[in-house]
């Protein structure tokens, strides 16, 4: 059965480019991003892993640990990492899983028969400290991921997990947020000391609470 938002992310043990890991132990109390790639030495994924490495400080600032998965073996991973570092001018230090037996790909439903019976589809999972799946995005092989968007949704997920707010369309960290419908306007005014702007009874804005 396919994973859905709110499901517990399956735990696993795996061989990776930085050694053997247990997924839950690797994440600890951090947020996690697990993202798949069809195979090593693919052009779009080369740019994606490079971009992920370039954003290492941004992920660390948000207490996010990243982990990539490909069905190729460790020797191929090592060669590919060399290419990524060279062509993307970076240093890949996060683990890349060698999922030769497709254990992880199967657990996370990354094998899609309409795409390929062998290669993983390019899925990205954001997992909370509670080990629940918070977001799933699946891309076709031809379209590179937007990692600015990945960071944006992490910011939104972390904010909305802590406060009774939601984030509007195109929201960026630091901008006004929406008061959730379950809170009355009167209670919202008491709760959010920076003020509440009521556009409609169901649409209330407040400045981002943690800024």
Description of the structure:
This protein is α+β, with helices and mostly antiparallel strands and 211 residues long. It has two domains: 133 residues, 3-Layer(aba) Sandwich (Glutaredoxin), CATH 3.40.30; 44 residues, 2-Layer Sandwich (Antioxidant, Horf6, Chain A, domain 2). Helices cover 31% and strands 24% of the residues. The chain contains seven helices and eleven strands. The strands form three sheets. It has a five-stranded mixed β-sheet. A four-stranded antiparallel β-sheet has the order 8-9-11-10, with helices on one face. A two-stranded antiparallel sheet has the order 1-2. Strand 6 and strand 7 form a beta hairpin. Helix 2 packs across helix 4. The chain is elongated. It starts with 12 loop residues before the first strand and ends in a 5-residue tail after the last strand. The relative contact order is 0.15.
Give a quick summary of the entry.
The chain is of the alpha+beta class. The relative contact order is 0.15. 31% of the residues lie in helices and 24% in strands.
Annotation, overall tally of beta strands? 11
The dominant shape is elongated
In total, the number of domains comes to 2
Radius of gyration equals 19 Å
* Helix vs. strand class: alpha+beta
Percent in helix: 25-40%
Low-confidence stretches: 113-118
Query: Overall pLDDT, averaged?
Result: 93
**What kind of sheet is the major sheet?**
5 strands, mixed
How far is it from the N-terminal to the C-terminal residue, by CA? 40 Å
Q: What proportion strand?
A: 15-25%
CATH topology of the largest domain: Glutaredoxin
CATH superfamily of the largest domain: Glutaredoxin
CATH architecture of the largest domain: 3-Layer(aba) Sandwich
Helix and strand succession? EEHEHHEHEHEEHEEHEE
The level 1 CATH classification of the largest domain is Alpha Beta
């Amino acid at each position: 059965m396919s994973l859905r938002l709110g499901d517990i992310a399956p735990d696993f043990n795996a061989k990776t480019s930085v050694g053997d890991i247990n997924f839950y132990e690797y994440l600890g109390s951090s947020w996690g991003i697990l993202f798949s790639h069809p195979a090593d030495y693919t052009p779009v994924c080369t740019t994606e892993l490079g971009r992920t490495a370039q954003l290492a400080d941004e992920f660390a600032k948000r207490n996010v640990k990243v982990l990539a998965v490909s069905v190729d073996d460790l020797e191929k991973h090592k060669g590919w990492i060399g290419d990524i570092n060279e062509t993307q001018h970076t240093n890949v230090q996060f683990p890349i899983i060698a999922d030769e037996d497709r254990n992880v790909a199967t657990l996370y439903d990354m094998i899609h028969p309409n795409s390929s019976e062998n290669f993983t589809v390019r899925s990205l999972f954001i997992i909370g400290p509670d080990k629940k799946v918070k977001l799933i995005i699946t891309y076709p092989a031809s379209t590179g991921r937007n990692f600015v968007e990945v960071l944006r949704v992490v910011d939104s997920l972390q904010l909305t997990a802590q406060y009774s707010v939601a984030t509007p369309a195109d929201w960026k960290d630091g901008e006004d947020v929406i008061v959730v419908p379950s809170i009355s306007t009167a209670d919202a005014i008491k709760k959010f000391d920076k003020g509440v702007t009521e556009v409609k009874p169901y649409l209330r804005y407040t400045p981002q609470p943690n800024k």
